[in-house]
Design goal:
The complex is a heterotrimer of chains A (393), B (255) and C (294). Chain A has 393 residues and is mostly helical. Chain A contains 20 helices and two strands. In chain B, α5 (130-143) crosses α6. Chain B starts with 15 loop residues before the first strand and ends with a helix. The chains are: A mainly alpha (393), B alpha/beta (255), C mainly alpha (294). Chain B: Keywords: ATP-binding, Nucleotide-binding, Transport.
Chain lengths: 393, 255, 294
Amino acid sequence: MPNASSTLAAPERAATAATPTDRSRRRKIATVVALIVAAVVVGIFPAAAPNAYILSAGVVILSYACTATSWNFMGGFTGYISLGHAAWFGLGAYGTGILVRDLGLPSFVAWALAGVVVAIITVPIGIAALRVRGASFVIVSIAFVLILLLVFQGWGSFTGGSNGLVVPRPFPDLMRPVHHQVFFYLFAALLAAMLVLWWAINRSRFGIGLKAIREDEDKAEALGIPTRNYKLVAYIISATFTGLAGGMYALWFGDLDPIFQFSILLGSYMVLMALLGGIRHLLGPLVGAIIVGIGLEVFKLQFGDTQFHLVATGLLLALVVLFMPDGIIPALQAGIKRFGPQSSSIREMTAGELAERNRAAGVSGASVFAGRKAEREGVENEDATTPTEEEKR
Amino acid sequence: MTATAASGATTTVSNLSTRGLTKVFGGVRAVDGADVTFHEGKINALIGPNGSGKTTFFNCVTGMIKPDSGTVTFKDRDITGKAPHAIAHAGIGRSFQLCRIFPRMSVLDNVLVAVRRTGIRSLLAPARTEAEVTKARQLLVRVGIDHLENAEARDLSYGQQKLLELAGVLMGDPDTIMLDEPAGGVNPSLIGRIGSLVQELNAEGTTFLIVEHNMDLVMSLSHHVIVFDRGRPIAEGTPDIVQSDPRVLEAYLGV
Amino acid sequence: MTGSLLLQSLILGVLLGGLYALLAAGLTLYFGVMRVVMIAHAAFLVLAAYLAWFANSRLGIDPLLTLVVTVPLFFGIGVLMQRLLIKRLRPATLTMMSVLLTFAIALFIEGLVGFVWGGTQRRIQLSYSSASIEIFGARIAVVKLIAFGLAALSLLALYLLMKHTRFGQALRATIQHPEAAQLVGIKTEGVAGLGFGLGLATAALGGTALSLDATIYPSLHWHWIGPLMAIIVVGGLGSIPGAAIAALVLGVGQSLLQVPLGTTWAQTIFYVALFVTLMVRPQGFFGGRLAQRF
């Protein structure tokens, strides 16, 4: 916040603005530290990984982080929860594979082109799906991935059907561990690109408009935000990056099967990771992906091919929805705030400020606030449906 | 047609009017061929018994509901059935009956979000430019909640949220503001505050259209009153004239 | 396509549609009383089918007899689910969060079924499994008829319950206008719980019917929940008769398309219908409630 601008309010603000500015500076420092730590970890991980398995698990987790972050362009900004984002992942993966197979394009040209194809497909699908909101949108998103599963299974001559599709490796000469290493960095670069874009949108006028849609779509529309176009753009960005992550996965893994590419489970992982970390935060999906990704790998090691990881996934998702719908990052922040030096909540602060202001201001502002007490008592009942969640938790 | 305003001495200009506006919900004609002309630069009030179609009319004008037939004209342009955001861009701001704000955004962002948006370039602009922040803060000062700018909007009291909603509407520089029950659920001193804000803004040239149940507020505030019953205006004129009109009594008392 | 083949497809479609109708009625109940889209409905369906299979193959009990246990059990689970889980969700985000929560329950059940009984395909073998009757040259398996009879009887019972009992009246009032129902003294909270239990009981009935002649496996429920959700959207969210009509129409459609297109492509009819509905009439074809809001 540069410049306390308005001369009218300047005297009061000078005293009180310290806390928010302080907070935002501390947040900035924390973000920079987190970024440096993340960069260092990503940089040394391939070298530090004791064996090819750990390295490949790292690639898997990064691919999860990519999908969860790309999901969050839609889910986080607009609040439209898509459980069928695996559709875009599968389209990107199959698009890349088929372009390499049929047109003989170089791998990464095919990958980029598949991203373009996904973006184009998103437009009509988005226009149709975004006509509905809330739970209906979730239903549509699930239906979409189920349709694509049927289509890719049924259209064997084009997609390889249930036999799957083999995608030629982009670097046939590389040894397996080096192959993993290369893709580890490629996924990291893709993720970094998404995070930068997320950050840019978050502070743009477009981003604040999307967040308004998440809060109250009708109100946003009434204030002049072209909600449909905004949602569509967010949807295209989200789907395209999910498709790019899928294409990258296809080039890395080299073997596609409709059952796994167009699976509801993959879509639910994206939702779980993003929700677990916190959909309102830049790094939320990444944090969620690391936790869930490690958890899934451990489960696969411990329980092998059983369906137990489904039980764990379901349980974790239910717990997050019931007890931590805002995710880990806000929960941690709240925890830090509670134990930190300044434990005052926003409301307490404003109450103090209010009293001070009323004393100082005398006439001008006071008339507004004179009735506040009565009004609080009178109106709070109607307000009862929106208690502050933070206080309850 | 409807009763003519006896305040005919002053010339009446209008920038917002409807002709034959009709909306049917499952056989019920919520708005039934309403011809309404609002007086530009004045405070217009829309009153009428519950279920007389005021809010549906309001929603048809602001584009939240697509009317079945009829036209809405604003500044000589036909805005019938346009998307709400396009109508907002045209210069009509509105509030909601049960005040609606963005609960988990800061108070300042609640105002900033309402900045005028045109073209693709505005998408890429930063959410908080210095000029806009300054303007938003001035509006918060104006409605008297500037000290809360960093609070989350859901932490505000209901009355404060109403003021915040008004500040948001003002951010879009509308020349016509439609308020749906601005005094609903608000304590008397705040009603007074809202009333004087409306008068101040009107003095600066903003046209108001207010749907309201609080008759004291309507009669003290408005220049022109339109009475709705069964989906169409049945009387209009200055507050004094409307108050003495037998048809109004009939509509309210259901004789 | 010969006449008898056509007739056979038609009859099979109606039989399948009956099961769809029962299950869609359950989904509609949850949505009606709580505005909850219950993704786990089909998972409970598969669970009930597994219980029937287990009782039959391990304990030697006729699958139909398992209803005595599964229907009350599922009813109880439904009531508890509403009381302990769904009610905890914030009203503002109830519909959205309930989708995620019931989705999580579906995953949980799928995993549990796979964990306990393995991922392989199972099928009940009954003495009358291969019996069939012929109607004008169309061969219809007896088990399919039994399954349909069970579904039709359950639907009839549900209809009578809704139309002619005080509880049904309260339930319908709660579905149509919860606030008004509260005002006339209906304890909508309790009614919602019972409605939820009733919905889950349809899953128990449907699962038993399903087990009679279907091959079951843990992830089968995804193939059911998609079509069922399409049915309730096409039928108009919240409308039980709408859901039943949509179920029959789409069931017959699927069955007829199976002959020229094969099973995989025939399933897409549900999704095509879903998208067409959303494009043309977001509030559904038969009911009145706006899908857009939920």
